[in-house]
Amino acid sequence: MRPFHILLGVLVTLIWGSNFSVIEVGLGALDPFVLTTLRFALTAVPLVFFVRRPVGVPLAAMAAYGLLFGAGLWGVVNIAMAQGMSPGLSSLVLQFAAFMTVVLSAMVFREPIRAPQVTGMLLGTAGLIVVIRAAPGTSTLVGTSLILLAAFNWSLCNLLVKRFRPPDMLAFVVWTSAFAVPALVVLTLVAKGPAAFATLPATLTWAAVGSVLFQAYITTIFGYAVWNFLMKTYPASSVAPLSLLVPVSGIATSWLAFGERFPPALWLGVLLILLGIGVFIVSPLLRKPTAA
What we know:
The protein is mostly helical. Helix content is 77%, strand content 0%. It has helices spanning 3-27, 32-44, 59-82, 87-94, 96-108, 115-134, 141-164, 169-192, 195-198, 200-203, 206-233, 236-239, 245-258, 264-282. It is globular, with a radius of gyration of 19 Å.
């Protein structure tokens, strides 16, 4: 990967890590279904009326991405966090999507996985396991399972991007978000009834508004436009492991925003994660030059 693109990827992962604390702020005032619906409604509207539909991407593929991304990824994450999963722990478990993406890309697209990358994956996995076991706070079997389901859905989203390679990533994010909104509205009505939207004016706070705006414009439009560009440009084994920085940012933000304290063993896990990412980043430099 080009150094500038690596820096962009790192910036996005830092934003995504802080996003979990932003979600926690929004959940303080809003139902998780409503919060997710508002996020994607603002991502799509009004830009969908000014941005042309991406060419070369079937509507069925955009609809599938929108459903997986809106409901399958962030709808599920918000539900898990509303049930007690902490921002830091949620950001950690979700990063298993990095390894799912690498393995699925190898299976579907025959992308090679080199020995240094396997080493990086093992180090990153070991770090995630150490951090999850050492992390304080609420963690239920249901909550952890929901986050793992969201991670799998994220890996499927990455595969769709690699398969269709949208030429305009901003347009792709905006239009797929438009497909996510109807599904999220239906899910909200089925799960919570019309009262979830009827009580919105009374429950909406300035903190919740800021949370929704950050999630819509910074996390989704900017973050995923950059991330999807990297996913379509480089092999998944080079891009996906960068997301392992998300829990590092998530833990730091959770500590600053909510005063969460972590045991020394957790920092050992963070060190293993960073080491694994470093192996992934430098692995192309470890190739032997081909003889002319």
